[in-house]
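Team,

Forwarding the record for the chain on the shared tracking sheet. I've put the sequence and predicted structure together so nobody has to dig through attachments.
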Amino acid sequence: MPPSPRPISPRPKAASCRRGTVPVRGPGTLVLVALILAASGFLGPGALWAAGSPGDFANNLATHPYAEALEKAQSENKLTLIYFWTPSCPWCRAFSETVLTDPDVKNTLVESFVVVSVNADRERKLARRYRLPSVPYLVFLDSSGEMVSVLTEAVAANFFLVYLEYLRTGAYATLDFRDFVQSLI
């Protein structure tokens, strides 16, 4: 009797999956399943993020295209916040859903800043201009367009509010952020 042919891929061990099922072999499989479920409508509308237009991750904040924002900031003597994000970034989504939806954060941004929301996957030239190391990446410019500060990670709403106040009041010109926080205590 000839030997049975050897399978191309090894069979999963009995403990790794139920009989008649295929084991998940990596994160690519999960992504594929999620895409199939989203395409079929099973996950419902908006289950997966799409790159979309500027402002997708800014949660209903009034956002502006980059060049327009710089002009507006100069004419209104406001700071500019450039928020770099990507659709696949879980920290960007968490920052957008928890921090940018905070009413106090939203009010401060609307009153004192001109917000630019940038999908770094689509706006690579702008990302290179600001030497984007990772996302989320928040760049703050003064009214003349000069960079005054950068946040390289998502932060909590209470920290972000204090940081926005540090920038809004112009304390960044004379005080280190730690000294500014000490002055509030």
